[in-house]
Design brief:
Elements (H helix, E strand, L loop, with lengths): L13 H4 L10 E2 H8 L6 H13 L3 E4 L4 E4 L2
Antiparallel strand pairs: 1-3, 2-3
Amino acid sequence: MITPSKFIPFSQSILGKLHHLNLHLGEIAIGDLYDIVHAHFDDVSEFIYALDVLFILNKIEIDQNKGTVKYAS
């Protein structure tokens, strides 16, 4: 679930899991990032939702040609 609700606590929502995607050091391959943080997400779809939320908020840049992600400057 993307947002917390009466039945979904904040810590289990996508918004509560965004902090696990801290990209401090430049660009990283999306697959490598998933390998690092997969323990914090129930499945790959939650990981993709989290990337989508950060992209919509203009917090990350995704290079589709390289398959990398980095924080927007």
